[in-house]
Amino acid sequence: MAGTIAAVGAMGGSVLPIQGPPCTGKTFVTVRAILSLVRKGHRVGVASNSHEAIRNVLMGCLLALEDDDPDITLENAELAHKVSGEDDGYPEGLTGITRATSNDDPALTEAHVVGGTAFFFSRQEFEQTLDWLFVD
After folding, report:
1. DSSP code of residue 116
2. The overall pTM is greater than 0.85
3. CA 19, CA 17: separation in Å to the nearest integer?
4. Ranges of each domain in the chain
5. Residues 6+ positions from 39 with CB-CB distance below 8 Å
6. Where are the alpha helices (DSSP H) in the chain?
7. DSSP symbol at 26
8. How far apart are CA 76 and CA 124, in angstroms?
9. pLDDT (tens digit, 9 = 90+) per residue, 102-111?
10. What is each CA distance from 107 to 29, 98, 115, 132, in whole angstroms?
């Protein structure tokens, strides 16, 4: 895991595919790589065609922040997800992830980690607003 996170942090203008069967730790490593980048001051995007996949990564970030990341806390790591509507699949009463239903929501331009579909990230106003993009 540490080697993969170090490799991600050292990348510049390239792609690192990570592939494997279910339950092999892909999301676990992805979440920690994302948080490592946020610790260094980067803004990170999480993209997928599926809101469920995006939600899974963002929830993983939230859990990692709660469980085992002393350098970043829920208070200073901002997570946002551009969702389609009110029924976004998150647990009722969840805090820590801003769920924006409008593309104009300031959380989407201010958060450290932003989740959205390819349609969201293809909007011109979001061009060059992120340092890293993870595609699930």
Report:
1. E
2. yes
3. 6
4. 49-136
5. 71, 72
6. 2-10, 26-39, 51-67, 107-110, 118-121
7. H
8. 28
9. 999 999 999 9
10. 25, 7, 11, 17
